[in-house]
Design goal:
The protein has 120 residues and is mainly alpha-helical. Helices cover 52% and strands 7% of the residues. It has helices at residues 2-6, 9-16, 20-34, 53-77, 103-112; strands spanning 39-42, 45-48. A two-stranded antiparallel ribbon has the order 1-2. The radius of gyration is 19 Å and the shape is elongated.
């Protein structure tokens, strides 16, 4: 995320307190693992590729969700009333569920208090 935000491996590395080469190698390993080039590298910096843009957007959403979950967990530990519910829906499985929710999805929605208009 830092590389995407700063458009620079060196500036991102400084923000993260790691060496630039370490960050660059880790991103390259991630790109190899995903089979997607996330950044176009040049002497002027790093720009997100078109193929990398959806990955970065999803990563931002995941980070926000994790931050919200940590806040909820902290609030529960402080004795504030609340529930923790974890759900995940991926566009990869959406074609499989077009016929309607399965019994397990209905149970999950009932457990976490979702109505038909909400997403789990």
């Amino acid at each position: 995320m830092a590389t995407a935000d700063t458009q620079s491996f060196s500036r991102a590395a400084a923000l993260l307190n790691v060496k630039q080469i370490t960050l660059s190698r880790r991103v390259h390993q991630l790109e190899e693992q995903l089979g997607v080039k996330l950044f176009e590298r040049s002497t002027r910096g790093a720009e997100i590729t078109e193929n990398g843009r959806p990955f970065i957007e999803q990563a931002r959403r995941i980070i926000t969700d994790v931050d919200n979950l940590q806040t909820t967990a902290r609030n529960v530990s402080y004795g504030l009333r609340g529930r923790i519910a974890v759900g995940y829906c991926s566009p990869i499985i959406s074609p499989l569920t077009k016929s309607g929710p399965s019994d397990s999805e209905r149970v999950l929605k009932d457990e976490i208090g979702c109505s038909d208009g909400d997403e789990a």
